[in-house]
Amino acid sequence: MDIRQLRTFVTVAQLSSVTKAAEALHITQPAVSGQLKALEDELQVRLLSRTTSSVTLTQSGQALLARAEQAIEAFGSFTNLARSLRGQIDGQFRLGVVMLDPSALRLGQLLQGMVQHHPALRIDVQVGRTSWLLDALRSAEIDGALLVCKTRPPGTRILLLDEMIFRLVIPASWGPDYDGSSLDQLAHVPWIRVAPRSGHREILQDILKDSHIRPVETVEADHEQLMRTLVAAGVGVGLMRDDLAHQARAASELNFFGDHKATTRLVFAYDEGRAGDQAIQVVLGMLADIWNIEAPGAVSSATASRELSP
């Protein structure tokens, strides 16, 4: 038994789907099925009941799920403690990145600085959904993550880099009938679905909090360039970063739906147990320089104001 098998079991249980679990874990569906079978064979316990359309926990699976989650978290804590005790960069830094335009994240500047100043450090960049980034941080599968969120994820420390505005956009082909005067106009048209447990979901909830509509969600899209393409094609209502939305409107691909928008935050998040880790400190210092913000570790009201509430 290894930690990957436990993580696969937990992910399938949470998503109730082998297909979605494979996507979230960045592995193939046969690999997911193989890890589940190996785990069940070793335990000699059936954990999941699978049909052609769904995956559900067996009674034994339900009993073991919480323990599996605890084991993953304990493994992450063990790994992080071992690294902090070592007190030095071990040659690899695994950076998780949310699915936004890398230039908006200033990712190129960060990686160029790390390569230039720490040539012995091997950097592994992994792009994924917010939900995967948070789970991977908890289980120590990545060392830090650039993501968008309104609240500080539990068990992490964060450095606030910038604020971002996202707005509702509609296909240009829909014409003037949708003038943005009321969200009720969008009650019966298709929406492009945003992922659960994501910064985009938080933003959408903020925009819709004073309305009574429940979006008719269709195609799911996390990557913002895919969102732009789908809105331009007339698939449905979308949620888009303000800068990108202005570019797309200038290209006559879409229209703003009134002034319906909300603000979120771009942060660098890492496990709170790794605050003293040398590699984390290197990344924090570089991000502070790139974003022209106060260097982490300085005690000041400016630094304190950059901490998000839990």
TrEMBL record:
Where the record annotates domain HTH lysR-type, the positions are 1-58
Tell me what this protein is called: HTH lysR-type domain-containing protein
The GO terms describing molecular function are:
DNA-binding transcription factor activity; transcription cis-regulatory region binding
Q: Which Gene3D superfamilies match?
A: Periplasmic binding protein-like II, Winged helix-like DNA-binding domain superfamily/Winged helix DNA-binding domain
The answer to keyword Transcription regulation applying to this record is: yes
Look up keyword DNA-binding and say if it applies. yes
What family is this?
Belongs to the LysR transcriptional regulatory family.
Its organism's taxonomic lineage begins at: Bacteria, Pseudomonadati, Pseudomonadota, Alphaproteobacteria, Rhodobacterales
Please provide an example of a Pfam family that matches this protein in its UniProt record: HTH_1
Organism of this sequence:
Paracoccus yeei
Record's keyword terms, sorted: DNA-binding, Plasmid, Transcription, Transcription regulation
